[in-house]
Amino acid sequence: MGIAITGIGVISSIGNSVEENLASLKSAKTGIAKIQHFKHLRKPYLGGQVSLSDQELKSELNISSDRIVPRSTLLSMVAAKEAWANNSEHNQLRTGIISATSIGGMELSEQFYFDLKDENNWSKLAHLAVHDNGAGTDILAEYLGISTYKFTISTACSSGANAVLLGARLIEADILDRVLVGGGDAISNFTLNGFDSLGIYDTEWCKPFDNNRKGLNLGEGAGFVLLESEKSLAISNNKVLANVTGWANANDSYHQTASSPEGTGATLAVSQALKKAQLSPEQIDYVNAHGTATPNNDLSESTALTNVFGDNIPPFSSTKAYTGHTLAASGGIEAVFSVLAIQENILLPNLNHAEPMNETGYFPVTEIQSKPISHVLSNSFGFGGNSTSLVFSK
Fold it and tell me: Residues of 380-393 as b/e, b for ≥16 C-beta within 10 angstroms?
């Protein structure tokens, strides 16, 4: 049966809830636009910004407006709250939370730095002590009342998927009965300027798997899912939305930022996730690809799909042309999208695609399509070759 998913929550540039995200996915509505409200950027950028300000997020979460909380954590709190829903701590259930992030409190650190540099304002310097990635998990766990187990993952762009993987493993090993897992990241000056310095930031809408792709657009948001064991289901009586049946992590250590051209780590992750799920390649109905729209990633991932599926590549697409690349949040957000694909029996479109890559000729799904979906493969690949694949099943 796998590990049950009984709750999903998401916030991104295409919506502030699961319902809003699904509506945007079905209507092919991108959330990528000109980045607003940022100082100290090298140049104008396109990206996927969440529509709510920090103060609006705090109001929605019913937390004090003067409490200093990193935006990445605020976004995670919204998505995690939606996934957690009406659940609460239970003395017969070992409950944990695994939160992933790359940014942590970096955007606040930047703000405090500029306050200090430009205005010689030292008043907020003490708050830098709570800007590490784990501090956000502590805030999130306290907010939801989860105290048994807390863990933070930061493996770059595979972080959110690794949170799902670790949660599933802890339930399978009978260490926990249920785990809230996912990730959240906000946009920051450092990531915008940093990815641009690598020469992989597109000045136009990103075009995953297109022959003329030039790079990514960043985004922000959060995605969480609630995993439960059979023991937990018997007590909670929660409805099962889907199951996590396969998972694997591999690392080819090819380069600090680039994926190996042979797709070594990705191939291992995909093939081992299918093995864990006890599925043949032919049984995968849809692939939610990592698909960052960088020349290196999309070719490497396509090579990995060829290595595993041969000439029978399943329908695939990248949803990052909707949300932007949300870094550590992407694996969590795309886990939610994978569950929605199963629930709605739809293939999600790959926006902005016009011309197949010369090297493969593969054509992703470009329009919303109805199709019975039993098994979805979701890929998340990070810097340093950290590659994670998840299988979600009806």
Answer: bbbbbbbbbbbbbb
Q: With contact defined as beta carbons under 8 Å apart, do 253 and 221 qualify? A: no
> Is the dihedral angle over the CA atoms 205, 211, 216, 219 positive or is it negative?
positive
**Measured distance CA(250)–CA(116) in Å, rounded:** 42
Residues 81 and 145: beta-carbon distance below 8 Å = no
pLDDT in tens, 238-286: 999 999 999 999 988 766 666 666 778 899 999 999 999 999 999 999 9
Q: Is the pTM of this model over 0.85?
A: yes
At the top level of CATH, the class of 3-236 is alpha beta
Q: Which amino acid type is present at position 335?
A: A
CATH match for 247-393 among 3.90.1300.10, 3.40.47.10, 3.40.50.12780, 3.40.50.300: 3.40.47.10
DSSP three-state, residue 6: strand
Burial of 164 (0-12, 13-18, 19+ CB in 10 A): buried
Question: Is 354 exposed, middle or buried (CB count within 10 Å of its CB: 0-12, 13-18, 19+)?
Answer: exposed
The dihedral of CA 313, 200, 272, 392: what is its sign?
Answer: negative
370 Rama class: left (phi>0) / alpha (psi -120 to 50) / beta = beta
Q: Cβ contacts of residue 202 below 8 Å, gap of 6+?
A: 46, 213, 214, 215, 216, 217, 293
In angstroms, the Cα distances linking 183 to 41, 86, 90, 207, 295 are 25, 20, 24, 24, 25
Q: What CA–CA distances, in Å, run from 103 to 48, 70, 71, 371?
A: 16, 9, 9, 37
